[in-house]
Amino acid sequence: MSAGAERAGARPRTLRAITEAAKAAFLEGGYEGTSLDHIAARAGVSKQTIYNRFGDKAGLFRAICLDLTGDLLASLAPQTRAADPRETLTAFGVACLRLALAESSLALH
After folding, report:
1. Residue 88 and residue 82: Cα distance in Å, rounded?
2. Fewest Cβ atoms nearer than 10 Å: which of 53, 63, 66, 106?
3. How far from chain centre, in Å, is Cα 14?
4. pLDDT by residue (tens digit) across 67-91?
């Protein structure tokens, strides 16, 4: 959820419903193929609620991209730091490859 949306005073459950519906819709249909009407219906909120929380479709998309990239990039953080730089770099490379090939990464791209 974006900081702007949180400042708008939306209830966490409503924001979560909107962002989860938007993530699924944007990943399935892309930006052009997704409407706020569809997201609102999927989230069980009014389109005006989305406008109030995110400004417009672009604002909602930015918030979703930030959430998705944050989740994806968090997966690159090494779980353990090996003393051997080779092991650390190999683990990082494997994490990068998994990230690049993840279904959500490909859909976001």
Report:
1. 6
2. 106
3. 16
4. 877 766 776 666 666 677 888 788 7
pTM of the full predicted structure? 0.66
pLDDT digits (tens, 9 = 90+) for 11-48: 889 999 999 999 999 988 889 999 999 999 999 999 99
CB of 23 closer than 8 Å to CB of 53: no
CA distance 74 to 25: 23
d(CA 100, CA 98): 6
DSSP readout, 3-60?
HHHHHTT--HHHHHHHHHHHHHHHHHHTTTT--HHHHHHHHTS-HHHHHHHHSSHHHH
